[in-house]
Amino acid sequence: MSAPAPRPRSGFIDRLRGSAWLTSRIGYMISLLMIFAGAAAYGRWLMGTSGGLDPTSMKPVAADFTSFWVAARTVIEGVPATAYDLQRHTQAQLAALPYPPGASVPIVTWSYPPLFLAMVSPFGLLPLGWAFAAWIVLTTAFFVEVVRRIAPNARFWLPQLAALGFSGTQDNLHYGQNGALTAAMLGLGLWWLPKRPLAAGMCFAVLTCKPQLFLLLPVALLAGRYYRAFWAALTFTLFLLGLSLLAFGANTWVAFFGTVEWSRNALLDQGDVVWGRMPSLFAALRLAGLPLSVAYAGQGLVTVLAAALLWVIWRSRAAYEIKAAAVVFATVCATPYLLTYDLMLLGIGIVWLVREGVLRGFPPWSPLLIALAWYSATISDFAAPLGLPFVTLLCLATLGVLRRA
């Protein structure tokens, strides 16, 4: 007598594990809700500003972009090395906006390498307000277009709406940061990698403007045997380095390296003001009061684990979509210096996971992880100040699911 067939599982946990609840209708509703809510909140805040400043906190409309624009102006004025002079950079930010005398002003330092200085320099030709608008429109449109390319035959603007409603996009807009640009370059590189490895390598080279986001890309390229892309990334990085030396002079690079130690100490090792905006394990351990050595050790273990999982996934026969998503989630949890606007990278990981789900079916638990990643910046705004390593746990859980896919 044969054994009775097992009863189908229908509990709440099993439904979360599956993908039946992740529908296009849900995607439209949540995306539009986030877009309208974000626009309303941002518009209300703008209406309360005066001359581009919040009169209560003295925070500019785009605090981080003001630093970008001031650095860009040093190129236009022919003195790029002064972008790394903290005192001059601070005074230039004070002069760029109508701060009242004696106000306690939130100042953003310029700690990017000259490669990024070259990217922002054209915006120094515009007034600050127009430069900010152009920066946000161009970089966000670039990100949305990359998401549209990767998305699997979606109709009625769902990928574009989801990209605009994504919590990371709205966080990046709030700060006027470069999250959209770095996410778009990583996404475009991953899109081109199987078909145009040289072009992909050039995209990856641009990420060296934020070296912490380039950290695990060589692991994936070597594990996946994409040697042409690896050498293209290395060669184009050296080309960009040489070009910046010719354009700005060696003294600009000397000035940059002169700020590295100060930036690491002020923004990472002792950056108690910044830790609350950093969803990395390192910041969580420091906020918990643990010593610097323990925080670095914990972050180091996570980085090694992420690199190992990434190597195994890229050496396997997993679908390329799985591998591309793994690069993103490994990159996000591998760096100690990560701010909430950098979580725009997760938007690229999300769209690769959705593509895999549409083409071959969603791996177990991946729809829930997609939803959590889509809200990651919003959740981190609450979790990071409490020292909760939400993003690290999310990324490691996703890598674990991808390893078994």
Explain this structure:
The protein has 21 helices and no strands. Helix 11 (217-223) packs parallel to helix 16 (292-315), helix 15 (281-287) runs antiparallel to helix 16 (292-315) and helix 16 (292-315) packs parallel to helix 21. Helices cover 67% and strands 0% of the residues. It has helices at 12-17, 24-47, 63-76, 86-96, 114-120, 128-150, 158-165, 167-175, 179-192, 197-206, 217-223, 227-248, 250-269, 272-275, 281-287, 292-315, 320-334, 345-360, 366-374, 376-383, 390-404. With 405 residues, the chain is mainly α. The chain has a domain at 128-404.
Please give the radius of gyration in angstroms: 22 Å
The SSE string, one letter per element, is: HHHHHHHHHHHHHHHHHHHHH
Strand content: under 5%
Query: Biggest sheet, open or closed, and with what strands and sense?
Result: none
CA-CA gap between termini? 35 Å
Count of strand segments: 0
Identify the overall geometry. globular
What is the mean pLDDT?
A: 88
Total DSSP helices: 21
Helix content, binned percent: 55-70%
Secondary structure class reads: mainly alpha
